[in-house]
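Provenance and format

Records in this collection were gathered into a single text stream. Each protein contributes a sequence line and a token line. The two records reproduced below are adjacent in the stream.
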Amino acid sequence: MSESQSKPKQRPSYYWPIITDSKSAAEVCKGAATVCFLVAGLNLIVATVAIYVGHPVFGMSGFSLADVAAFGILGYFIGWRKSRVAAVLAVASFLVGKIYVFVPLVGNYFSSLDSAHQFPFGGIVVAFIVGTPIFHGIRGTFAYAKFQKLSASPAPSDCTTDGLLREMR
């Protein structure tokens, strides 16, 4: 089989990035960190405006500064430290935040089906687009740890009986 007839080369995808080695896992982690920093930056802007005007803006108040700090710290640990705990916490925090925002909106939509309350399709789509790389941060950090563990283990040729005997001498 010639090289051109071998497996078709897979294209990288935003929705399911290909992770084949520690370098590609690190790239996925950097993407998740970038989105965490983006979320922190946008929350910082909205929280600052909410503090300035004295009432919540887009359902966010000055207390959203805690989200700013959390996503900034989690982004650092995901992108540069490849922390699996930080990746899981980022996804959990993102999901809890979205549930906190969307449950009242959906409840208002179904409690009074008039034109004043519209179903938040746009918010759900944006949450999916933003949340996807954060979710892949979990994949990237776990894959990175796996590849690092594999590269640190001894080569299979050293695990032979001869290799063990040499180490014992």
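Adjacent record:
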Amino acid sequence: MYTLGGDTPILETAASHPRGRQSVLRWTCPVSHTSGWPRPRGRWRTRRRAQQGSYVVRKPSLTGVTVLLVDDDPDELALVGTLLRTAGADVTAVAKVEDALRTLQNGPPRVVVSDLMIPGHDGFTLIRRIRRMAEDGGGHMPALAISGFDNADQRRYALEEGFDEYLPKPVHEHIVTTVARMVFPRRRKGEIHG
């Protein structure tokens, strides 16, 4: 849980959407702290509650999605894991590539989210090993690279090595929507799935 000056929680609670398709995350900040903050943009649907001083942000549900999360930073591992779990994902969080490879022997998750810069073996080593696996062993599972560096060269290299998406840190605002987009791609008009 993040705090803003004192004991004011930003991430307060989460609940499932009645239709089971979305989760509702509530960030609560005193109105005095939010004045001057930009309103959330993009595909997030927001509603301002002036009397309570909070935003309601609707995010996709990841209920039933298994995620392997790999990051050597314990705070980042805990926060990203919490955000994914809050959206309904079943998260296995590990700090080392070796632990991730052992976890993959128990069966592939639906998606892998890995930091790139991990001491010892890095995220590039992990994705190379995953892509060498047989398809039924998870060799083609979606993989998301997360990194503290936001530059075009690293993004391009990560995608060339086998990651499907690249997200620069901090990932907190976009991790759930990015994972949902990777796992549940939108159907194009006229496309038939059967």
